[in-house]
What we know:
The protein is of the alpha/beta class. It has 14 helices and 18 strands. The protein has helices at about 20-30, 55-65, 80-90, 115-120, 140-145, 155-165, 185-195, 205-215, 230-240, 280-290, 315-325, 335-345, 360-365, 370-375; strands spanning about 10, 15, 35-40, 70-75, 95-100, 125-130, 150, 175-180, 200, 215-220, 245, 250-255, 265, 270, 275-280, 295-300, 330-335, 355. Strands 11-9-8-16-17-18 form a 6-stranded parallel β-sheet, with helices on both faces. Strands 3-5-4 form a 3-stranded parallel β-sheet, with helices on one face. Strand 8, helix 7 (about 185-195) and strand 9 form a beta-alpha-beta unit. Helix 1 crosses helix 2, helix 7 packs parallel to helix 13 and helix 8 packs across helix 9 (about 230-240). Bound molecules: adenosine-5'-diphosphate and magnesium ion (MG).
Amino acid sequence: MRLDLNVPLEDGRVADDTRLRASVPTVEELLRRGATLVLMSHLGRPKGAPDDAYRLGPVAARLSELLGREVRYLATPGPGSPEQQAFVAEAPPGSVTLLENTRFDARETKNDPELARVLAGYADAYVNDAFGSAHRAHASTEGVARLLPSAAGRLMLREVEALSRLVDGPERPFVVVLGGAKVSDKLGVIESLLDSADALLVGGAMAYTFVAAQGGEVGDSLVEEDMYDTARDVLERAASADVPLRLPPDSVCAREPDPGAERSVHPSDAIPAGLKGLDIGPAAREAFAGALQGARTVFWNGPMGVFEVEGFDAGTLAVARAVASLAGAYTVVGGGDSVAAVNRAGLADAVSHVSTGGGASLEFIENGDLPGLAVLRDDA
Length: 380
Ligand code: ADP
Ligand code: MG
């Protein structure tokens, strides 16, 4: 079984167990049905080799608490190692075994068929419940599924159902809010949403690439100069599709995103040299909240500013509150940082669906499918 147990660790403990909790229902269901489970997940970005900072020991400990039963775990060199094969071979019927980080071996991200073969040898069937990793065709997310009878888990199904409502004829008006650091990360989804959304609100650092591409002065804000042509092209396409693409009229600026930094508000296209736009400004908060009023469907990905730092979180919180206040609308928040912001604001219960996948939710909206999903459907 592939899960997305990629959680933040702090001092050798799981700092946020949201993804572990989300994984529990499918695990429990399979145990009730008599399965012996071998679980696999990646954690962080080790460089294709064992790295003690990314061992899954703390995850096994927390998962064991959540399940109220033993989770067998052995720190091994990597996926498919002889130590691991021996450990899996000793698993008692009905037990739960968690394998070491799948990314301790460079063959994982290369979707190496030999590694997939060894992993597939651990089991009689494969269940993928790792929605957050389904946009990657790796050995543990895609290769294994080719070799065993396979199925999607409950979390995977719930995510696909929730996000499909955005892709298949969303109720209108459909308003999309995009933010975060880079335009290049989200270009594909912007382009596909131009065909379906009624309005696009763009904040975060991304906005400054659009502003600068049109000749605005953005000071020292984060921009992607190699994206200026693309940004102008997107603005033109939005205009010809009659989809308003709204940028923040003003920005909260400072020299650096430090808690004590001196802050000032400037028009987003007239930010003085030496200052960075680090959050959308008060006029933008009002404009974006206003544009969300009356929406029947909302998709939000990416914070409006450096929300992790006090003093630069007002824009993100304003959008969170505006989305959460839409009674009767279908609202979806996706993306690690956006979801963290909604959780911090205590508003997770007020949105219709909080996606566990960042990149995966964007790619699903862009393409209507994911490699880790398609391979399950192909199963004979
Ligand atoms: P998500 O995880 O929700 O998909 P991203 O990872 O794309 O979001 O972007 C989140 C990051 O973008 C955060 O670390 C945030 O600090 C950063 N960010 C947002 N606005 C700005 C800005 N104006 N300048 C610099 N960084 C920003
Ligand atoms: Mg992120």
